[in-house]
Every structure is written in structure tokens, then in C-alpha cells.
């Protein structure tokens, strides 16, 4: 499985932000943004070229927008720069990316190994939906590489995990998992939705990186989209007109949305820095106040050092933290009070300019049966916070702590702020 030094000495930080900045655009009329492609289909001057394009033989020719469109290719190019991969395909949602990748790699009778703490929709797809195709899944504790290794069989096609997991914020050891996958000739697929810029899984050895663009990358909670970042061969295979899961399952992003997400991507570095520094501040203060807070940036977090070894400088430990309010009733009361006080919204999702909070046990992870939730440490009083871009986080913190004190989530004697 490789020693610590073997796995980490070759790692170099990747400056994704520079790679995005270095892209240059000259629109159709010299515009600083590429023109939006407002067509679902494309003309050919000769019938022969149309045939060749169907066969996948004509570079730069567009056929039909479910296959590709200029706007989607521009966004894909920027996301490939973000993850440092050869190529990237964009999809109509994060689930559209995840399901296409899994069905592209696994056939009936195959097996895959997955982290047991993952996004609820992905969990439901792996646990319930894949049964229809006779694809078996072993759920493991991803922080235990021995358990991952032990679960791999001759039928295993991939290891699936999240770089920082939803909602427990477990950190995956990507170089070690990549080595495990390489040794067995299988792929490591990593969902990097929680930690764009902070972590670059492909640069750490992951073969395929998936994203829900709906969250931090778009950052304005107005669009649903996803992406698959990988080598060119895999991205082309997904788009194959005969057997590509991306092409045939049809989860295509609309050009207008691709264009608006590309524009938002350009401020991702500024936003992630602010989300991270606000979350780090709150996590520290919450901990001082005696709250049960989980944040990878806290030294008390079991994955703290692992994350530090893997992460790129400058972007921090991300904008997500959790607080255990002790019971579902207290969690609900606290979230309602914080919303009344305009400290954020009681809403699922992440990466918005305002703080979003929800109780994963009864929302985004409700697909996971209750006893399994308990087993993995997902208590019913757990609140997931996606920390906003608040300019004055000290003020926000004082007001949040006041809510927590009023509801007895922290003790009265703790100083606020
Ligand atoms: C939201 C989310 C998804 C699903 O993305 P959609 O865009 O909602 O389809 C997948 N993985 C993670 C970690 C997420 O947070």
C-alpha cells in the first residue's frame, strides 16, 4: 500500500487558480466572454463531413448539442484547468455526472467499493438503484485503507469516495487509495464537490474527479450542473454516440447555464478563501464555547494532518462545518432561530453567499437508514453549516453563539464571541 513518504514525496501543490486565470477568450465578435451557442443543431456544408462527425472523426465539428456545444466545451476546458486533468465533460447535475461515470465503468456482475459516508443521492444510487443492473457495492470506512483493500475483489472496477465527505467531513487519503487502485488495475473516482481548489484529487492520483457545480463552483444557488474531469479518452468514451453513458443517458447541460457558470467560476478563488476563513473562525470560536464542532481545519479533527499534507496552499480547509446540537429537537429549534435572526437560511445545498444550514439526518442523508446513520456517527442533532461570505464574521459569530446560548446548546457561562 506504500509508506507515507512513498505516497507523499512526489506530491506538488497545483495552482488551479492560475490555470483558470491563464485561459484566454476572444468571443465571436472579439468579446471578452465567449459567445453563447444558441443552437441545438449544427449545419454541415457537405454530407460526408456529417457522416465523419457521427463516426467521431472530425475535430472541431459540432453535430447536435446533447453531444457537445461550444459553450459546454468552454466550461469543460475551465474545469479541466481547475482539476489539472486533460479534459472535462459538463452535465446537467452532479448526479448526472456521478451516475454516468459509474454506469460507464461498471457492467452487470461487476462490483465497486465505496466510502460509506457520501452524499445521500449517491448512496441511494449505489445501494438501491444499481441492484437493477446486478452491480454489487461494498461500503467501507474510507479512512481505513486496509478495509478498502480487503473489500476489493476480482470483479471490482472502481473505488468511489468524496475527498471531504458529506456530511461527516472525513478526509480521504487520495495518494494511498490511488496506489491501491493502480495496484489492482481499477479506477479511483473522487467527488470533489466539498473542496474545489483546496484539494486537487487528480493531481494526487485519482483517475476521475466528479463535481456538483451546483454548490461552490457556481456559488449562487441559481443553477444545477455537474462535471466529470478525467483523461481525454474517458471523456470521449462518455460522449460516444454508440455506447457513451453521458451521451445516451442524456444529462446535458444547457448552453446558457454553462456560460453563466463559467463566469462565476472566475471568482471561485476569492470565494473559497472567504468561505474557508469564515468557517475556520467560527469553528475555533464554537470549539472555545464548548460546542461539538467538526471542521477539518481544527487540529482536533482526525483528518486534519492528512488534509494538510494533501491540500494546495492559499484556499484553506473549506466552508463546511458541522455542529452537534445534541438532539433533533434542539437542532431544529436552533436552525429556525438562526433563520429568524437572518444569520442564514434553513436550506440544503452549499456554497451560497449566505450561510445555509440543514440537519443531514432528516434531509440530505435521509436516504441512509437510521441505524446506519448511527453507526457512521451521523447523529440526529447534527447540523451541517455551509458558511457564507459574511464580511464581518465576528458579528455573525456573536449572534450565532447568542442563539445557541438561548436554546441551551452551549452553556450560559461561556463568553459569546
Ligand atoms: C449536491 C451533491 C451532489 C449532487 O449534485 P446535484 O448537482 O445536486 O446533482 C453530489 N455530491 C455531493 C458531495 C454533493 O454535495
Describe the model:
The longest helix is centred in the middle third of the chain and has 21 residues. This protein has 417 residues and is α/β, with parallel strands linked by helices. The chain is globular. It starts with a helix and ends in an 11-residue tail after the last helix. The C terminus is likely disordered. The chain contains 16 helices and twelve strands. Helix 4 runs parallel beside helix 11 and helix 12 crosses helix 16. The structure holds pyridoxal-5'-phosphate.
Fold blueprint:
Elements: H1 4-8, H2 16-21, H3 47-54, H4 70-83, E1 87-91, H5 94-105, E2 111-115, H6 120-127, E3 136-140, H7 145-151, E4 156-162, H8 174-184, E5 187-191, E6 208-212, E7 226-230, H9 232-238, H10 245-249, H11 255-265, H12 268-288, E8 292-294, H13 304-310, E9 320-324, H14 328-340, E10 345-346, E11 356-358, H15 370-375, E12 382-386, H16 393-406
Parallel strand pairs: 2-3, 2-4, 4-5, 5-6, 10-11
Antiparallel strand pairs: 1-7, 6-7, 8-9, 9-12, 11-12
Bound molecules: pyridoxal-5'-phosphate (PLP).
Pyridoxal-5'-phosphate binds next to α5 and α6.
Organism: Robiginitalea biformata (strain ATCC BAA-864 / DSM 15991 / KCTC 12146 / HTCC2501)
Modified residues (N6-(pyridoxal phosphate)lysine): 215
Keywords: Lyase, Pyridoxal phosphate
- Give me the CATH fold name of the largest domain: Aspartate Aminotransferase, domain 2
Please count the beta strands (DSSP E, at least 2 residues each): 12
Number of domains: 2
The arrangement of helices and strands along the chain is HHHHEHEHEHEHEEEHHHHEHEHEEHEH
Oligomer: single chain
Biggest beta sheet attributes: 7 strands, mixed
Helical run tally: 16
Question: Residue ranges: pLDDT <50 for 5 or more in a row?
Answer: 412-417
CATH superfamily heading of the largest domain:
Type I PLP-dependent aspartate aminotransferase-like (Major domain)
Hetero groups in this structure are: pyridoxal-5'-phosphate
Shape call: globular
Rg over CA atoms, rounded to whole Å, is 22 Å
**Helix content estimate:** 25-40%
Strand content: 5-15%
Strand order of the largest sheet: 1-7-6-5-4-2-3
Average of pLDDT: 92
**N- and C-termini, Cα separation:** 45 Å
Organism: Robiginitalea biformata (strain ATCC BAA-864 / DSM 15991 / KCTC 12146 / HTCC2501)
Cofactor: pyridoxal 5'-phosphate
Protein name: Cystathionine beta-lyase
Modified residues (N6-(pyridoxal phosphate)lysine): 215
